[in-house]
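This protein record is not my work; I was only asked to verify it. Where you disagree with what is written, explain briefly why. This is what I was given:
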Amino acid sequence: MMVSAVIPTYEGRTELLRRLIESIPSGVEKITVRGDMSLSEKRNYGAKKSKGEFILFADDDNELAYQSIKMLRLALQNKKVAVAGMVGCYDHDKRKVCDSGAYRMKNGFTKDKYFNKQIFDLWNETKMPYEVDEVANVFMIRRDVFEKLGGFDTERFPIDLDEADFCIRAKRAGYRVVVVPSALTYHRSAAQSRLPNFRRPKNAYYMGRNRILFHKKHGLSLRFVPIFILSYVVSLMIKCKYSMIKHFIKGVCDGIQDRTGNRKEYRV
């Protein structure tokens, strides 16, 4: 049962890419995707080029722990499981969790139970795969489910929330989304705070826009959107990211107007 690893990558990230590829076992097909495409477009393109029964999607700023891919593949032997994610730990502190899968609440916000806790806290509670609403960063999908659901929605979610959108579609189709505690990845670019701290205008724009589109597509109540907008604006002010506020608000406005696609000035 062959595994293919799809790795979207970007210019100037040679060393990051090298570390990730060296952490992937030799028996795994490795497909590196470069070029003028968005993240979700790169993921779809790589999946189409791949041959494996299981498709691992791994962002290029990760390094995988030994046997982690094998653990995801074992979880996907259960035909009811469509998506299996890894527990993410910080690259600079490999015992501290930065991503353990998320639960999406009715107001659209997410909760990560083990965020910034020690990996031993997670292992003390469970060593078995546990169900979540969505995963991100490094995760594996069964090819048959990926093709059945049409891959990632590149129009609405070129970056940000593309994984969340796929997971919610998989769950509504009757499948499970799980995180495997024995599968670990060390994430170099993980944020250490829940407060938004956008590095680039396009991240601020697409988070604002895509969140509105996500609510609309999946029937989440829009009455909580003002809370979302206010909380992000206040957080950006606390972080002194004043220049990002206008891009975030522009994204919110485009989301309300149902503007999709990869906007030229925010090309990803």
